[in-house]
Write a structure and sequence with these properties.
Elements (H helix, E strand, L loop, with lengths): L9 E7 L3 H13 L3 E6 L2 E6 L2 E6 L9 H9 L3 E11 L6 E5 L2 E2 L11 E2 L4 H14 L6 E4 L12 E8 L1 H4 L2 H12 L8 E5 L6 H9 L3 E6 L1 H4 L5 H8 L4 E6 L6 H13 L3 E2 L14
Parallel strand pairs: 1-4, 1-5, 5-10, 6-9, 11-12, 11-13, 13-14
Antiparallel strand pairs: 2-3, 3-4, 6-10, 7-8
Helix pairs in contact: 1-5, 3-5
Length: 287
């Protein structure tokens, strides 16, 4: 089969009718580009712009596994990226714009499958984080990664992009438009791929590195997710971060014996353990 006869692949942005912020992000996307209605998906209108499709599902995203399969069946094209448009909820109630990989390093409290990670999209997701930092300038939001968590389960590269953390932020159309601008301009960063271990839920060290250094993060396993966990989570983080060659371990957040064990495991899986000084400053991102 020659290149011209290969089916075109699509990126899919997924909105949920059950999520106010998700609906606002979808509507902002539709307002900012020349979308055309496409084949119905689940009885609802879908829209296409270039190689990107927007679909809306009635239920909350978390509990609908295998959506990628349904998308490929509906559109007859391979899906190379799924991005979920979503609200963000946190106990701190801090206004935040976040991106994160998905899957469950341990149990499956919020959808997906237990001890099962979904393929990450490191160069896309890191580009989204950097885009949010630029597009949210002047808005009262913290821009950050979150660690890998929650469902649903898919087999295609996936990440969530979120605004929160309360009803006030979910209804903030300026934040929704910032997210829409990021997604419409989204291009993969040119950077080596890493996984991250340690840190809190918002993995601040990994966030800072992704914003300042030439590195693209895939799966991010927070310290709490590694406590008492089997090595399966680390193995999957490597396996489901395609192209990963490095790992950054936030050592101060982990017990020394655990650091040694994790780093040995990562090295056996073929990854190089790096420190901040090993990563060049990303000059392009400084502009």
């Amino acid at each position: 089969m020659d290149a011209e006869s290969l089916p075109m692949s699509v990126r899919c942005f997924v909105a949920s009718e059950a999520d106010e912020a998700s609906r606002n992000q979808r509507d902002a996307l539709l307002a900012l580009a020349s979308w055309k209605s496409d084949a119905a998906f689940g009885g609802r209108t879908s829209w296409r712009w270039r190689d990107t499709v927007i679909v809306t599902i009635p239920e909350h995203h978390l509990y609908r596994d295998h959506l990628d399969r349904a998308l490929e069946g509906a559109f007859g094209e391979p899906v190379d990226l799924v991005v979920y448009l979503s609200k963000h909820v946190s106990e701190s109630r801090r206004p935040s714009l976040t991106v994160h990989p998905i899957g469950n390093p341990r149990g499956a409290e919020f959808g997906g499958q237990p001890e099962t990670l979904v393929p990450s999209a490191p160069r896309w997701m890191t580009a989204a984080l950097r885009g949010l930092r630029k597009e949210a300038k002047g808005l009262p939001y913290n821009v950050t990664f979150e660690a890998t968590h929650h469902g649903p389960y898919l087999t295609k590269p996936t990440f969530y992009i979120e605004q929160g953390s309360t009803e006030t932020e979910w209804a903030d159309l300026a934040a929704s438009r910032a997210i829409a601008r990021v997604l419409l301009a989204l291009e993969q960063v040119d950077a080596p791929i890493a996984i991250g271990l340690g840190g809190g839920h918002y993995v601040p060290r990994h966030t800072d590195l992704a914003l300042q250094r030439r590195v693209a993060f895939g799966h991010l396993l927070a310290a709490y997710a590694l406590e008492g966990a089997s090595g399966r989570a680390i193995d999957q983080a490597v396996e489901r971060t395609k192209g990963a060659t490095m790992a950054y371990v936030h050592r101060k957040s982990l017990a020394k014996p655990d650091v040694r064990a994790f780093e040995e495991r990562l090295e056996k899986l073929g990854l190089r353990i790096v420190e901040e000084a090993d990563l060049p400053t990303d000059r392009e991102d400084e502009t």
